[in-house]
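Entry for the shared binder. Reason: the reviewer on the internal report wants the predicted structure included alongside the sequence.
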Amino acid sequence: MTKKFDLKRLSFGLLAVSALAASLSACVPLVVGGAAVGGVMVAADRRTSGAQLDDEGIELKAVNRIGDYFGDKVHVNVTSFNRQVLLTGEVPTAEQKERVLQIVNKVENVRSVVDETAVMASSSLSTRSSDTLVTGKVKATLVDAKDLQANSFKVVTERGTVYLMGRVTQREADRATQLVRTISGVSKVVRLFEIITEQELNTLQTTNKTAK
């Protein structure tokens, strides 16, 4: 494996370090899923511009509404991709878990919700720091894979479980899963992909090139 760093890999590394620093500086109970950074990534996104805006709105509204209802009593991460919402984190009781799900289901433009929150005490700072580092390693691995477009994947890590989201082909889904499973610190991989055909991918790539 090459040890040479390119700009994309360095960027992902810096993002991971920034996220880790933020998690160490304060204990934030509610987290919005990572958004695309910069015009280049937005332009290459396989979602429509409308879906991208909806996803940002869904994440912000869900976080705010959960925060208004629970305050700091729960630790819930909200990640939306193409209007499918992933909930991860921890809640103290089954009743609170159900209430979180109800709140998110009522957010405008939500197409479906995958509830992966656990009924347990909030994860420790060391666990969250480890998850941040794993996410950084996953993103760096996807960047190194020359047969994948790293910015087509959204990565979420919770207590060692890596959740992969994105609009990808079956080949891309299988390849990314294979790579992620080999990364140290990954205990499980959960795939929440929207599978598209190779023809659909070619059409998207042609459209993106034309738009540049």
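Summary line for the report: The helical segments are 7-25, 38-44, 49-70, 94-105, 125-144, 170-180, 198-211.
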